[in-house]
Amino acid sequence: MHAIVGMDHIGLRVTELARTRRFYEKLGFVFLDGPLGPEPVAIMEHPAGVNLNLILNGDESLRANPLMDYPEKPAGYTHVALRVSDAREVQEDLRAQGIAVSEGPVELGGGLSLFVRDPDRNVVELHQPGTGS
Q1: VOC domain spans which residues (predicted)?
Q2: CATH number for the domain formed by residue range(s) 63-133
Q3: Nearest CA to 60 among 20, 12, 117, 15?
Q4: Tens digit of pLDDT for each residue in 65-108?
Q5: How far apart are the C-alpha atoms of 70 and 86, rounded to whole Å?
């Protein structure tokens, strides 16, 4: 197998493009294109190089995140973690943007993490690594 050289994109199922786009723009993502293709998909990218593929076929009637919000815990991806330089500064930025922190700040692995939910309750961790990371 050839070596993996990086992450290409994160696929995220959502219910409504406009609402999701506004949320991720508050985090600094830029809308690039879409909807495209048969699914359909919209593409956003952060200047840090993180690419989101927003898959626009989420079921609006499901108001909870099945991987996070039920007592049964099915296997699957539970969140995406985005590296930040200063979690305390990010916390103030989130407050100014009207984005609620659902958990944190919490110390994890010598670093500091904040957790937020997007409009479809997908979990986003904003993680400041510790000095040894």
Answers
A1: 6-129
A2: 3.10.180.10
A3: 15
A4: 776 777 887 788 889 999 999 999 999 999 999 999 999 999 98
A5: 32
